[in-house]
Write a structure and sequence with these properties.
Shape: rod-shaped
InterPro entries: KCNMA1_auxiliary, Leu-rich_rpt, LRR_dom_sf, LRRNT
Radius of gyration: 40 Å
Keywords: Cell membrane, Disulfide bond, Ion channel, Ion transport, Leucine-rich repeat, Membrane, Repeat, Signal, Transmembrane, Transmembrane helix, Transport
Largest sheet: 9 strands, mixed
GO molecular function: potassium channel activator activity; transmembrane transporter binding; voltage-gated potassium channel activity
Distance between the termini: 173 Å
CATH class of one domain: Alpha Beta
Strand content: 5-15%
CATH topology of one domain: Leucine-rich repeat, LRR (right-handed beta-alpha superhelix)
Protein name: Leucine-rich repeat-containing protein 52
Number of strands: 17
Order of helices and strands: EEHHEEEHEEEEEHEEEHEEHEEHH
Pfam family, one: LRR_1
CATH architecture of one domain: Alpha-Beta Horseshoe
Strand order of the largest sheet: 3-4-5-6-8-11-13-14-16
CATH superfamily of one domain: Ribonuclease Inhibitor
Amino acid sequence: MAPGPDLHGNYQDPKKEVQCHIMPLSLSSKNVWMVVLLSRISWTVGSISCPKECTCQYLTVNCTGKLLEKFPTTIPLDTRQLVLAQNKLSSLPSLELHVLSDLVYLDCSSNTLGKDLDFTFVSMIKLIYLDLSFNNLTQVTFGTFSQLSSLMVLKLSDNPSLVEIEKDSFANNTWLRHLDVSRCSLMFIDTSTIRDLPNLRSLGLGENPWFCNCSFMELCSWLKESGITILDPANVTCYSPVFMHGLKMLEEVQEELYYKCYVHFSNQDYLFFGLVGFGIFSAGTVLAWLMGVCAVIYEYLTASGEDDKQEEETEN
């Protein structure tokens, strides 16, 4: 194209115009775009091995609602987000999860996972989000999540068979910010289990059959003082013993347990104990007096008997 005027009559060289559009793109910018392009091409090539039951997009594998009974194979190794919700998985193979070391998001909600998950999530040190809600988990131990040192969100709600979370179960999850154990079958949780999570911001405890004995006072005190957001606080209530049933843990339990677990005396109690003490003292005094009188009478009778005996001997 020959140089010529534009629509406004200004002279313009097409070559210079092309140069003006190209020059602002620096070499570093070109490299960045090249890396992004190559990474997407790499994922596209890797997506050839995408599980046939799932859908794969850039760094994401979604297998929601496919009624899977086994863990899907051929998942791309660089997957960052894996969704396995609403299936029929009863277990998670640690070997297959081990190779997904770049995974940061894992959703296994609404399955039939249960029994022992200890050391299932090995080598997943980048995992930030883990959803195990709506399953059949029975217990949580130190080995269940000990390898997830970067975990920030853990959802364990709606596991009706979950009856125990052992002390120090989250000792290695110090980055944990959100923990939900609502609607399980927990009766007790040691205060140190959640107190030792320095970054915890929200906690779900609702609709569990909590057994509110004297050991619960420490937990209630800590929940009030920590400033942590309690999810659905109206449903965090005691189930047993009978006299505590239905009491709200954050409002009523601490005060009730305080009077049940520690001895307190009113003015009437002190008056009663005073009267009892006075009665005991009086009874003791009277008893001592009677014993003294008996001792004096005994001594008198003994002395009189000896005098009579001596007089009889003298007469003889």
